[in-house]
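sry for the spam today, last one i promise. C-alpha cells for design, 239 residues
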C-alpha cells in the first residue's frame, strides 16, 4: 500500500472540506450530545460508534486519518503552519475535555431515564445547533491556522481520546490491526516530520523503532513523503 493509493487521501480531504456544510450534521459532536440530552440516538452517534469499533482494527486511520471533515478542514488550513514536531505532553490537555464529555452524556442519560429510540437527524434544525455548528467549523479552522495542522484534534477533541483508547484496546487484546513498520535505511532527512499532520517526531520514532504512537492517525503521509521507502503499512498483531 504505497504512494498511488495514499495520494488519493489528498483528494479525499479536499472533498470532505468542500462538503463540510452538508456533512456537518452527520459528524457533529453537538448533534450527538443534543440527541442524547433528548433521549435519542442520532446519525452522528452511530457514525462515532462505527468509528470506535473500527479503531480496534484500523486505529484512527478510518476516522481521523481519512473520513473526518473537521480534521480535513484543519489539515488543509493549517498544513503550512508550525511544521516542527511538538511536545506530545501538550496533547494531554484533551483528556479533561473527554472526561467532561462523559459527564455531560452520562448525566443527560440518567436525567431522562435512558435513551428512548432513534431519530437520525434530530434535533437537527434546533436554533442552538444552527449557531453552534458553523461556530465550531469556524473555530476549528482558526485554531489550525494559528496553532498548526489539526490543533483541535491534538488538544481538545474528546472523540479522539475514545478512538485512541479503542486503538490501544485492540493492541492489548492482540487483534490484528493496521500498523506502521520501518526498516533501517533512514537517511535522517526528516521529511516524515515535516509531513506529519499531527506534529509527531516521526524521525525519532523510526530511529527508535517505536512506530506505535497513540497520537498517530495512520494517515500515511510519512509513507508518501519518505524518499527511502523506510516506512510502510502492515496489518499484524503488535508485539
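last one done:
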Amino acid at each position: 500500500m504505497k504512494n498511488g493509493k495514499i495520494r488519493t487521501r489528498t483528494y479525499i480531504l479536499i472533498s470532505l472540506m468542500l462538503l463540510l456544510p452538508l456533512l456537518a450534521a452527520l459528524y457533529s459532536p453537538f448533534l450527538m450530545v443534543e440527541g442524547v440530552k433528548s433521549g435519542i440516538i442520532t446519525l452522528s452517534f452511530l457514525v462515532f460508534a462505527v468509528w470506535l469499533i473500527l479503531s480496534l482494527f484500523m486505529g484512527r486511520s478510518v476516522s481521523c486519518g481519512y473520513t473526518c471533515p473537521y480534521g480535513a478542514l484543519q489539515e488543509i488550513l493549517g498544513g503550512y503552519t508550525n511544521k516542527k514536531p511538538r511536545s506530545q505532553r501538550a496533547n494531554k490537555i484533551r483528556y479533561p475535555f473527554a472526561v467532561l464529555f462523559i459527564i455531560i452524556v452520562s448525566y443527560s442519560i440518567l436525567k431522562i431515564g435512558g435513551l428512548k429510540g432513534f431519530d437520525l437527524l434530530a434535533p437537527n434544525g434546533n436554533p442552538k445547533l444552527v449557531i453552534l455548528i458553523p461556530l465550531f467549523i469556524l473555530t476549528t479552522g482558526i485554531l489550525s491556522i494559528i496553532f498548526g495542522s489539526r490543533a483541535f484534534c491534538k488538544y481538545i477533541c474528546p472523540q479522539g481520546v475514545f478512538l485512541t483508547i479503542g486503538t490501544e484496546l485492540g493492541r492489548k487484546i492482540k487483534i490484528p490491526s493496521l500498523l506502521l513498520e520501518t526498516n533501517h535505511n533512514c537517511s535522517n532527512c526528516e521529511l516524515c516530520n515535516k509531513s506529519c499532520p499531527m506534529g509527531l517526531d516521526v524521525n525519532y520514532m523510526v530511529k527508535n523503532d517505536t512506530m506505535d504512537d497513540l497520537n498517530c492517525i495512520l494517515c500515511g503521509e510519512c509513507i508518501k513523503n519518505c524518499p527511502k521507502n523506510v516506512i510502510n503499512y502492515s496489518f499484524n498483531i503488535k508485539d
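Residues 176-236 form a domain with the Alpha-Beta Plaits fold (CATH 3.30.70.3270). ok im logging off now
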